[in-house]
Structures are given as C-alpha cells and as structure tokens.
C-alpha cells in the first residue's frame, strides 16, 4: 500500500527502503513492534 502510493512496486520500495535504512520494511516493522512491547504502552 505504501509502495503504491509512492509510485513504487513492492520490490522497488523494499530495495529503496533497505538501501536507505539498512533493513527491509518487514524487519523494520518487526523490530519496532518488539521495541514497543518491551517498553510497554504509554502511561496515562
């Protein structure tokens, strides 16, 4: 979805993302979820 909105194919977006950030979009999402779970939800 993000790739299409930016004018990329899925493969093209993944390649560009990895080139810029050093990891695939999938590994980025997984890492961010793990980090958020480790910290816990924000307090009131």
From TrEMBL:
Residues 1-31 form the HTH araC/xylS-type domain. One of its GO terms (molecular function) is sequence-specific DNA binding. Residues 24-44 are annotated as: Disordered. Keywords: Transcription, Transcription regulation. It comes from the Bacteria. This is AraC family transcriptional regulator. It comes from Nocardia cyriacigeorgica.
